[in-house]
Design goal:
Elements: E1 2-7, H1 9-12, H2 15-26, E2 31-36, H3 39-48, E3 55-56, E4 59-60, H4 64-88, E5 93-96, E6 104-108, E7 120-125, H5 127-135, E8 139-142, E9 145-147, E10 153-155, H6 158-169, E11 175-181, E12 199-200, H7 202-211, H8 218-230, E13 235-240, E14 250-252
Helix pairs in contact: 3-4, 6-8
Length: 253
């Protein structure tokens, strides 16, 4: 079993939550990959520089200057902070952007119908490279920056990277995908943490999305989660970061 874990930006930005999560991640059995973004800090830095972040349907619009900023945050500060913390916990982590070892190759998203700027859609995951690291008992830590075939960096949704990585690695072994964030699972009511949906199918998801109960950043997360199931991933779970080692949260089916 290969486990791909995606950790949300609100957790990365919380030192106590992140420290606890990483301790659990180290104890996760078997081969594993960690995928992260860092949008909370990126937005905060944009605002500090007088640049208002633009998000459309939970996805960041990325112009050239924003790309420089998110690359520094995702591939720099957050990635190396996570890797250093894992190393201190005895986990031989290797921090990567998609450009490193051609780990994840993307293409720039079409400007139609919405121009997101320097944003990438995943074309290919270098499973041989990632599997080689895992076979050497190393743990890949992927950030949300990828590259295209011409060497251009692209801001790429971390949920998408996690889903495509899990699907690609399914060619080697059974894979499971766990989305960890600051909520206990997918909620029927975003303001009520007790309204966790234990099992979520596509029909229920479509209804909740149409009613607006599921919106913003949860939409691309769940779109990617269901695409991972289509791509051969055995199990997809959405849960709180403190529940990584516990079978609770929302199981997609």
């Amino acid at each position: 079993m290969i486990t791909i874990v995606k950790i949300g930006g609100n957790v990365i930005d919380n030192e106590l939550l992140l420290r606890s999560f990483l301790k659990d991640f180290v104890n996760l059995p078997g081969h594993k990959v960690l995928v992260h973004g860092g949008g909370v800090m990126a937005s905060r830095l944009q605002q500090a520089l007088g640049i208002e972040p633009v998000l459309l349907e939970g996805r960041r619009v990325t112009d050239g200057e924003t790309l420089k900023l998110v690359t520094m945050v995702y591939a720099g500060w957050f990635n190396k902070t996570i890797v250093a913390s894992l190393q201190a916990l005895g986990c031989d982590a290797v921090g990567l952007s998609g450009a490193d070892g051609k780990a994840v190759i993307s293409k720039r998203r079409s400007p139609e119908p919405v121009d997101y700027g320097c944003v990438g859609d995943v074309e290919w995951v270098n499973t041989g490279f990632l599997k080689g690291l895992m076979d050497e008992e190393r743990v890949p830590v992927l950030c949300a920056i990828t590259a295209d075939k011409d060497g251009n960096l692209l801001n790429t949704n971390a949920d998408t990277i996690a889903a495509r990585t899990a699907s690609a690695l399914a060619a080697y072994d059974r894979t499971r995908l766990i989305y960890c964030f600051e909520k206990p699972g997918v909620l029927r009511n975003a303001d009520d943490d007790s309204s966790v949906i234990p099992l979520l199918d596509r029909a229920t998801y479509a209804d909740l999305k149409e009613s607006g109960a599921i919106s913003k950043g949860m939409v691309p997360k769940l779109d990617n989660a269901f695409s991972a199931i289509d791509g051969g991933v055995s199990e997809v779970i959405v849960t709180h970061c403190s529940n990584l080692l516990k079978p609770i949260g929302t199981l997609l089916q």
